[in-house]
Amino acid sequence: MSYRSGMLYACRVALAIFLTPVASAKTVPEFSTAQVYATSVQVERLMQSPSSVEAAFSPDGEAEALVLRVIGSAASSIRLAGYSFTSPKVVRHLIDAKRRGVDVAIVIDAKGNLNSTSAQALNLLVNAGIPARLVDRYAIHHDKYIVVDGKHVETGSFNFTSSAASRNSENVLVIWNNADLAAQYLRHWQSRFNQGVAYQSSY
Question: What is its EC number (predicted)?
Fold first, then answer.
């Protein structure tokens, strides 16, 4: 028996025990077969929820691979918030998403991206038609997450840099198919994007 099947069986047994009438207890309510079935269906739907969680780590390459897979899964929208932003692979995957019709936009820290490598990455994005804004309202804009299609969330310690992929000890967590969580991240992302200043390409 699989773990899920076992859990469903245990829940049904618990429900059956709880709903069995007790002769000496006049206050125990009576439940119809339809009510018991409806409750059982609710439990089964909960156990079969499509939402799932996936984790990966660096510097063994798995963290970056998962981030790129999240970007590659996008069908309609990508919203990225970051601190340091220099990764050529992330840039390439974002541009590829834009070219296949995905609505892509990013917001990153202003002070953490004053170097030429960040400028090169941002120039490529903006010249590909991807809006990028810089935030300097805080000591640092240290957010690191991606929201895809309004339902998938990637987060963790992973900066969008080559160092995070191959030199640092980092973690990436992806919550798939959780629109409620994604909505919270999107509200936060929009507030930071509204505070940002649009990056202008230097060439």
Answer: 3.1.4.4
